[in-house]
Amino acid sequence: MHKSPLTAFFLLAVLSAASLLLTSCQPTKPLVKIGINAELIGELPAVGISCKHAVELVANLSDYSLNS
Fold it and tell me: What span, in angstroms and rounded, lies between the C-alpha atoms of 45 and 48?
């Protein structure tokens, strides 16, 4: 069977629209992972906990979400 150019154009248009819709469904905010090297247990847990709180505060002020 010989397909008409109009059918091929229609198929190309549908595939292009679908790919645009699928790639535009991204999260509005980027995911930022922040790592710290702090002692949360052991000899100086107060220092590590204060570092953790500082990172959480900056993340909240920057309007980023944390994945704990």
Answer: 5
